Amino acid sequence: MSLVCKKATTIGEKNRARSIVEHEYLKMGYLIHKEATPPQIPSTPYLREATSETYALYLDKKIIGTISIIMDSVHGLPMDALFKSELDTFRKKDEHLAEVVQLAIDEEILAQSGMLKKNIERLRFLTSLFQAVLRSAHRAHISTLCIMVNPKHDTFYEHIGFRTIGEEKSYPPLQNAPAVPKVLTLKNKLNSIVKSHILSQILYI
């Protein structure tokens, strides 16, 4: 089976990517489905800006994962809602920021595998998605990637190289889910996600 990650350019690709995110967020309790109003992910409006990119992960011909990157601009970043002072510290140093948002994998695809294979496949999918974001950041001369994560995913992001820059806070738009601000300094370069096969042992996320 071929695995390809590419920029989502069509409406169909973007809609499928958004549906994966919404489905997984609903399952995790980050969103609540209401008949009158569709679920709204706070970072979605930023994805309409020219300074953002969404990537779709294809397994054969089916989109099974997605990730997006938003470049800092006059409109700021989604993280500013909780962690503006932390991000401003980097802006004052003339760092070029970008935020990673809406990372999601279709867990129903993974559920078809056994536990060991499931974790290895998740690692393979996440690796492809983050490679796309890193290439995008490199082209845009981004020096620092930032992200808000649920603390239960800390181990994964720390192994990639992200470090915490602030205290945990509740994020009201996602049902007060806990959020921790993290950054990855790109000018020192990522050691390579691919070589961290040890991640397969801890990817119970």
**Count of discrete structural domains:** 1
Quick one: CATH class? Alpha Beta
Report the sheet with the most strands, covering strand number, pairing sense and barrel closure: 8 strands, mixed
The CATH topology corresponds to Aminopeptidase
How many helices in DSSP terms? 5
Please tell me what the overall shape is: globular
Helix content: 25-40%
Kindly describe this structure.
The protein is α+β, with helices and mostly antiparallel strands and 205 residues long. The chain has a single domain, classed as 3-Layer(aba) Sandwich (Aminopeptidase), CATH 3.40.630.30. It is 32% helix and 25% strand. The chain is built from five helices and eight strands. The chain has helices at 11-28, 80-91, 107-110, 115-139, 154-160; strands spanning 3-7, 52-59, 62-71, 97-105, 144-149, 163-164, 169-171, 177-185. Strands 1, 2, 3, 4, 5, 6, 7 and 8 form an eight-stranded mixed beta sheet that branches. The radius of gyration is 16 Å and the shape is globular.
Give a brief outline of the structure:
With 205 residues, the protein is α+β, with helices and mostly antiparallel strands. The protein has 5 helices and 8 strands; from the N terminus they run βαββαβααβαβββ.
Features:
5 helices, globular, disordered C terminus, single chain, alpha+beta
Topology:
Blueprint lengths: L2 E5 L3 H18 L23 E8 L2 E10 L8 H12 L5 E9 L1 H4 L4 H25 L4 E6 L4 H7 L2 E2 L4 E3 L5 E9 L20
Parallel strand pairs: 4-5
Antiparallel strand pairs: 1-2, 2-3, 3-4, 5-8, 6-8, 7-8
